[in-house]
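Homework-ish question, so no full write-ups if that breaks the rules, but can someone show me the predicted structure for this set?
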Amino acid sequence: MSAPAAPPAIVLVEPQLGENIGTVARAMLNCGLTDLRLVRPRDGWPNPKAVAAASGADLVLETAQIYETTAAAIADLGYVLATTARLRDMLKPVVTPRAAAAALRSREAAGTRCGILFGPERSGLVNEDVGLADAALTVPLNPAFTSLNLAQAVLLIAWEWRVAADTTPAERLTYDETAPPADKAKLLNLFEHLEEALDAAGFFRVEAKRPAMVQNLRALFTRAALSEQEVRTLHGVIVALSGLRKGGGPA
Amino acid sequence: MSAPAAPPAIVLVEPQLGENIGTVARAMLNCGLTDLRLVRPRDGWPNPKAVAAASGADLVLETAQIYETTAAAIADLGYVLATTARLRDMLKPVVTPRAAAAALRSREAAGTRCGILFGPERSGLVNEDVGLADAALTVPLNPAFTSLNLAQAVLLIAWEWRVAADTTPAERLTYDETAPPADKAKLLNLFEHLEEALDAAGFFRVEAKRPAMVQNLRALFTRAALSEQEVRTLHGVIVALSGLRKGGGPA
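A: Not a homework solution, just the prediction itself:
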């Protein structure tokens, strides 16, 4: 087993605006990428406009490497993707950002260093550079408006790479130590308190409808995923409105 | 069955920079969203800097609605998410962008209009606005560098919403009408041509190793997913290198 490879390199071919290089660095670091490679940046390097736009992602700019050719920039990589709006006159696999993220992760797990090529802002990658890549990567956007800023393109792809190994729970509730979720006994106790108070107030006028109404109320409060504190608060609400403590006694 | 609802509204609460409103509009339209709502934009509305930054997403800016309060901006919505870096002193579900996209899509399919709240650039949403939402949405970025531009935050979330219903094949090959994929008979014919030429050239010196070497060569060319045109080209390559046409005759 090889050790997993480092995160993918981002290779900008002939980037024009220093500001875009800076916002690319920021998007990279947001997603945990740090290996930035620049092929013939138009305005030279270092570029103060890049630093100003990086919003603190200086680490990425300081360690960026400069290359004369795309071939030199990817020489040490084993798997390379080329971002393109459309592929002309070339038979090559075309992958979505999500499929690209899975492909990158599986190769990195096998110890293969990977990289992603981005072309100049206006024109995109030339065919010769796309030809160097193992696959083309196209972002399926609104067909009526596909114009994506360079840093936005880097962000979407770096984001998909990051999420592919992210373990954040899809949904969680922010219970803290002082307000843990109520257990089912406490919840049942609350339901009974409410139902006693409603019985005493004559709420269930039609006895035949009582079971369904009770079920609906219980479902509502179960869906709310109450904390212990909230259960105590609701007992207080019932007492305040009805004057009835749990067990039927006056408050 | 209700008709599916329109795509989610993007609600910017007290956005400061016109430029950010413009780049938000661009990110929205990239992903097919058009319902932009602004609550007390700092520099008034309309804002020429927003138009300059929208890079052609004028439609979104022209139809943007202005509100005095967050409550008014979301009054017609049935499900609302609030973007926050962290949730303080509030018991609420917290979802990832991917889980949010699934939640939005399922509610939209049931005809529920949805929206996503974004706070001012520096300070984020106040607790009172988060409290209006059904769930909080947090983007799990590199913990060492979570600073995300407003338009980048909108882009990531709008992207996840778009991908959740995107039908683009994860991977495809760009065969065209003039170069369809070769069928297996054509491929087998190519293999036999190559193996005849290699036999004639004495390539398989150790007969015991021949089956494995043949398998490896066949695997390599199968993995390349050749087009019909490429099969013809490779027949030509074999003839050129070996002087041997298919069937063993001289070229």
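Now go work out the reasoning yourself. Hint: Chain A is about 40% helix and 10% strand.
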